[in-house]
Amino acid sequence: MKSIWTESARIPGRNPLTGNKRTEVVVIGAGMAGILTAFYLQRHGLHVVVLEANRIGSGQTGFTTAKITSQHNLIYEKLVRTTGEETARLYGKANQLAVEEYGKLIRRYNIQCHYEQTDAYLYSVQESEVLSREAEWAARLGLPASFVRETGLPFSVHGAVRFTGQAQFHPLEFLRDISAGLTIFERTKVLKVQGHEVVTDKGVVKAEKVVFASHYPFVNFPGFYFAKMYQEKSYVLELEPVNSLKGMYLGIDERAYSFRNAGDKLLLGYGSHRTGKAPKENPFTTMKRAGEHLFPEAKEIGKWTAQDCKTLDGIPYIGPFSSLRPDWYVATGFGKWGMSSSMVAAKILSTQIVGRKTPYDEVFSPKRHHFKAAAGTLVSHGMQSVKGLSAGTVPGAVNCPHMGCRLVWNRYDKRWECPCHGSSFEINGKISAGPAQQGIPFID
């Protein structure tokens, strides 16, 4: 599938790696997190090489709804309850500073990326109390939040949390400019990492530090990220023309939608589910009906899916990969908030790699243990993985090359999906999302 971003931006191609190289830092993955990390490392004076299996921004960055916001669903009251007020405060501050940093970069370098400051709303048509509490806690934590009952949506809401001073943009136009001065090798697939050697299909890169910014870490040991993350899939419908809606909106109700404008176009989101567990009803059909009802003048002009890595406690893993690999770093588990989280990751990792600390290191550390926040998700995630692994032992099953889980067919997305760890594959077996590193044999 193609998105509004992949259809409307052309990033100049980079050559593949040719032979072996040495560098100070190698970044695996040329999405938003990888490019920003390399950008800040280079500003610190380090020599950085970025390796990308496909094209710059061709992964999940090209299929985001590109909301730059510290408003991350119903998270702040939960964080206060499960991890403590100080952790919640630092999480919110890191993400709000990330929102502001995008604006500074875009203005400083005069990046033409349809950047627009706007408000972000979290709404419900059924309840208001939980939103009122969320707004109260977010404001207490220092975020630009308030509870409101009026929004720009074409229907009445029971209540909403409003975050002012947020933003939206064209992510690939931004990447095109911010990556211009970086050393990037496209169409260079990383096969394995051995200590300080990154082995690709085009040669070996030796580096003092290695950053995994490839959406989902493909190295299972050490780190064990496969045991503490899962993936979710969601669906996006592009409608045109829609001039009546401005801003960014996310519903908390069971069958709620997300909205954001992109000029005179509207991106309508719906249907989030664990990868490998597609709903009974086609999400695209549901969205089309909603679009026809809410915006009868608009026509469908595009559709795509997005896939997000989720951690057990809802906080991304950013920092040293494992105590057994002190020179490896990771940025993953951004949930649906990849734009602000990518900036948070880039600022933290670039500071850590030059030997300094940030106030946010412990909050995002992959070595943290928030048992209270993660307990329920851990049980559910573990059960789904065990079920998928067991099904993979059945003769004739189509198995994931990552760890052998039985793949399932998503008839809406037209892809094979792994219900354990979220790898997905095109109908011809070509890999479209990791952690698997290779495709599956062609299936008739």
From TrEMBL:
One matching Pfam family: DAO
Keyword annotations: 2Fe-2S, Disulfide bond, Iron, Iron-sulfur, Metal-binding
Signal peptide bounds: none
Gene Ontology terms, MF aspect: 2 iron, 2 sulfur cluster binding; metal ion binding; monooxygenase activity; oxidoreductase activity, acting on paired donors, with incorporation or reduction of molecular oxygen
GO cellular component terms, semicolon-separated: cytoplasm; membrane
Rieske domain ranges (all copies): 400-444
Gene3D superfamilies for the chain: D-Amino Acid Oxidase, subunit A, domain 2 (3.30.9.10), FAD/NAD(P)-binding domain (3.50.50.60), Rieske [2Fe-2S] iron-sulphur domain (2.102.10.10)
SUPFAM superfamilies for the chain: FAD/NAD(P)-binding domain, ISP domain
Transmembrane segments: none
UniProt-listed PANTHER family: RIESKE 2FE-2S IRON-SULFUR PROTEIN YHFW-RELATED (PTHR13847:SF274), SARCOSINE DEHYDROGENASE-RELATED (PTHR13847)
Protein name (Swiss-Prot/TrEMBL): FAD-dependent oxidoreductase
Organism: Lacrimispora celerecrescens
